[in-house]
Structure formats: C-alpha cells, structure tokens
Amino acid sequence: MNTLAGKVAIVTGGGSGIGRATALLFAREGAKVVVADIDADGAAATAAEIGADGLAVPADVSDPADCERVVKSAVDGFGRLDVLFNNAGIIRRTTVLDLDAGEWDRVMAVNVRSVFLMCKYAIPAMTEGGSIVNTGSGWGLKGGGNAISYCASKAAVVNMTRALAIDHARDGIRVNSVNPGDTDTPMLREEARQLREDWAAFAADAADRPMGRAGSPEEIAQAVLFLASDASSYVTGSALVVDGGGLA
Ligand code: NAD
Fold first, then answer.
1. Among 20, 41, 92, 120, which residue carries the largest CB count within 10 Å?
2. How many domains would you assign to the chain?
3. 246 domain residue, yes or no
4. What are its GO biological-process terms (predicted)?
5. Is the CB of 61 under 6 A from ligand 1?
6. What is the per-residue DSSP string for 13-33?
7. Residue 98 covered by a domain
8. What is the pLDDT of residues 30-43, one digit of tens each?
9. Strands 239-242 and 173-180: what pairing?
10. CA of 218 to the centre of ligand 1 (A)
C-alpha cells in the first residue's frame, strides 16, 4: 500500500476510465496526484474521491500553456514531481476516406503532441529522477480497422517513448508505454455504440479477446503502477502489452 509513498504524480485524462482508475490506485499507494483533464467535472470528481492528496487541474493537454500549468500545479501544490502518466486520448472510428484534415490534426494533437508537451515541461521538474508512462495501444503495435488516425498516433507514442527513454536514461528518468487492449471504459462503450454492436457481443469477440472479455481500467492501472514505481527500476523504453492475449 505504499509503493509510491512520498511521490507526486500527474495523471492526464484522470477524469475517466483508465486515468481515473490509475489516479485512485496511485493515491492508495501513497502518492499525491494531480488529476488533469479537459473535462473539469471529471477531474474534480476523481480528485474529490482521493481527498486531500488529490488536486484537479482542468487542462487541454494539446495546449502548451495548459501543459506548463499542469506541471507548475504539481510542483507548487505538492513540492515535487516524480511520476507522469500521459494517458489522455481520443479516437475517431473512420477510414482515411471519411476523415477530414482537422480531425486528423486533433487526434494527433491530443494523442501525440500532448506527450511531447507534457514531457517538455515535466522532465526539468523531475529533479530527483522519475518515471513517465505513456498510454499507447495494441493498435500502436499492429494495425486496426476504421481507426487510421488513432493507429498512426499510438504508433508514434510507442516510438516516442523509446526515444525519450534513451535521451533521459542518464537523468534517472525511465520512460515506458503501457499498451492496453480493449478496456471497459466510456471510450470503448462509445465505440461499440458507434459500430452499432451489442456490448456483450463486442466484449466477447473471440478474434481480439482470447480471454473472452474486455479488460477493466483497474487491470491497466496495476501495470501502470508497476512502471511508475521502483519495482520496475531497470525497465525503460519498453512497450508493456496488457490485452488479455489480444496481440498474441
Ligand atoms: P476515456 O474516454 O474514458 O478517458 C479519456 C479521458 O481523457 C477523458 O476523461 C477525457 O475527458 C480526457 N481527455 C480527452 N481529451 C483531452 C484533452 N485534450 N486534454 C485533457 N484530457 C483529455 O478513455 P479511456 O479508455 O480511459 O482511454 C485512456 C487512454 O487509453 C487513451 O489514450 C486511449 O487511447 C487509451 N486506450 C484505451 C483503450 C480502451 O479500450 N479503452 C485501449 C487502448 C488504449
């Protein structure tokens, strides 16, 4: 219950799904947590659940000034920064034919530019070393149908993670990606709805889900905790897959 005792963490997209579950787990493990989300109500709800060790910061992680403000909030509010979970993300379920340039740019901005920006401001604040975890996806490691911009963005996240890990290893900063398969969050429920698929059938799809179910946000959070904590002290530049065997 104290793997992150004394640590300060930022979780982006902490108002929902995987980010929310991870923020709550980090807090249970002793961390103080900045919950950043474009959804101010979601961020506030997660921070309220954490209590005095939680701080909600409404922010658009594609915006440089917002990212700088999120990092400043952690250092000003809690005195240091040790862990950054770059998790906020969006998906558009279209082929290249139905996607306009503005939608392409938005997916890239929220999923990729955000990792660049948050790292740019967070790394100098990690004065005693730290751990950065970026949320990729199984679709960053293989292709997926009807999600052209998302697949491109998540492949970028996986390889940015490797480049960041090399550049900052000597600063005592480890950088890894966690790559979920289908996980039961509001994002995935909305995808099933857009694809007009019954949730139970969707979640049990045999081809993608050998275990016959989607993962839970808490199951992803446990993997993020491993990468965030000293338990993974010799792990950097890795792409940890948490997908119930989907990629296999
Ligand atoms: P979710 O929609 O439940 O949560 C995403 C959160 O990110 C939301 O609270 C949303 O408000 C926030 N957000 C969106 N745009 C933002 C922005 N510009 N600035 C700040 N916050 C923003 O989705 P989730 O399923 O928990 O997804 C979390 C991450 O996991 C995403 O990067 C997603 O691509 C990835 N992922 C999800 C699945 C899955 O099956 N759910 C699978 C693989 C990867």
1. 20
2. 1
3. no
4. fatty acid biosynthetic process
5. yes
6. TTTSHHHHHHHHHHHHTT-EE
7. yes
8. 999 999 999 999 99
9. parallel
10. 14
Beta-bridged to residue 57, according to DSSP, are 36
Residue 195: is its pLDDT beyond 90? no
CA of 40 to the centre of ligand 1 (A): 14
Q: What is the pLDDT of residue 128?
A: 98
Ligand 1 pocket, 186 CB below 6 A? yes
CATH number assigned to the domain comprising residue 174: 3.40.50.720
Domain range for 237: 8-241
Residues 203-224 have pLDDT tens digits of 887 777 899 999 999 999 999 9
The DSSP annotation for 60-112 comes to -TTSHHHHHHHHHHHHHHHS---EEEE---------GGG--HHHHHHHHIIII
Tokens 């969707």: give the residue.
Answer: 202
Please tell me the distance between residue 222's alpha carbon and the centre of ligand 1 in angstroms: 17
Question: How far is 61 from 51, CA to CA, in rounded Å?
Answer: 23
Is residue 2 one of the residues assigned to a domain? no
Residue 220 lies inside a defined structural domain of this protein: yes
Residue 195 identity (one-letter amino acid): L
Cβ 208 under 6 angstroms from ligand 1: no
